């Protein structure tokens, strides 16, 4: 059982030719590992995951810099946007699911991109009590994109049912929309009745 695609990839590279792992490659692999496990906080993190991370550090990856990129170094404008979105986030009646939506108009007004949205999903999953966290937003072409994170639930399985993919604790969906129907579909898969 692996925590991320980067963990699988590093294992394959070690079989093929470990000399391919330069310091830059080690940094990229460790970034993917740290991002997908929310810096080793998800239940998919195993002793094997941590040993691989140690190998990547030994090969030149800088865990402190990567951790800062994954969970820190947010610009004031980004935090203001997150605050605006968090002010309207919703929580399931049992408090296990937290979600927020971002319209195309909001994205354009705040001048934010997909990376900022994904960062918000990670932030929510670290900062709030609950199990499943997702942010749904409207892309420029009208497609609804969803970034899902979880501590325990298999959001990868939920994403797959709705045409997306990922793994147990981090996944994404591209859905034809509209935004409210996409959110409803996810909540149905989670067995949640929209509460507050």
Walk me through this protein's architecture.
- The termini are far apart.
- Strands 1-2-3-4-6-5 form a 6-stranded mixed sheet, sandwiched between helices.
- The model has no long low-confidence stretch (mean pLDDT 87).
- Strand 1 (90-91) and strand 2 (97-102) form a beta hairpin.
- Helices cover 51% and strands 16% of the residues.
- The relative contact order is 0.13.
- It has 196 residues and is of the alpha+beta class.
- Topology as H/E string? HHHHHEEHHEEHEEH
Instruction: Give the helix/strand class.
Output: alpha+beta
Tell me the strand percentage band. Answer: 15-25%
Number of helical elements: 9
Q: End-to-end span in angstroms?
A: 36 Å
* Spatial ordering of strands, largest sheet: 1-2-3-4-6-5
List keywords for this structure.
196 residues, alpha+beta, six-stranded mixed beta sheet, 9 helices
Please give a quick description of this structure:
51% of the residues lie in helices and 16% in strands. It has 196 residues and is an alpha+beta fold.
Question: Which secondary structure elements does this structure contain, and how are they paired or packed?
Answer:
Layout: H1 5-17, H2 23-36, H3 47-58, H4 63-71, H5 76-86, E1 90-91, E2 97-102, H6 104-110, H7 114-127, E3 132-138, E4 144-150, H8 155-161, E5 165-167, E6 170-175, H9 179-190
Parallel strand pairs: 2-3
Antiparallel strand pairs: 1-2, 3-4, 4-6, 5-6
Helix pairs in contact: 1-2, 2-3, 2-4
């Amino acid at each position: 059982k692996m925590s991320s695609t980067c963990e699988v990839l590093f294992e394959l590279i070690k079989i093929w030719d470990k000399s391919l792992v330069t310091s830059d490659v080690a940094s990229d692999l460790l970034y993917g590992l740290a991002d997908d496990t929310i810096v080793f906080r998800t239940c998919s993190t195993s002793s094997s995951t941590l040993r691989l991370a140690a190998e990547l550090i030994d090969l030149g990856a800088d865990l402190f810099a990567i951790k800062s990129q994954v969970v820190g170094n947010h610009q004031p404008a980004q935090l203001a946007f997150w605050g605006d979105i968090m002010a309207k986030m919703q929580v399931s009646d049992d408090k296990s699911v937290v979600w927020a939506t971002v319209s195309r108009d909001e994205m354009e007004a705040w001048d934010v991109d997909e990376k900022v949205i994904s960062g918000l999903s990670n932030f929510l999953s670290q900062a709030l009590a609950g199990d499943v966290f997702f942010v749904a937003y409207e892309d420029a072409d009208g497609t609804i994109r969803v970034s899902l994170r979880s501590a325990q639930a298999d959001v990868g399985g939920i994403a797959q049912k709705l045409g997306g993919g990922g793994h147990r604790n981090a996944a994404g969906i591209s859905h034809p929309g509209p935004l409210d129907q996409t959110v409803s579909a996810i909540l149905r898969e989670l067995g949640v009745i929209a509460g507050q």
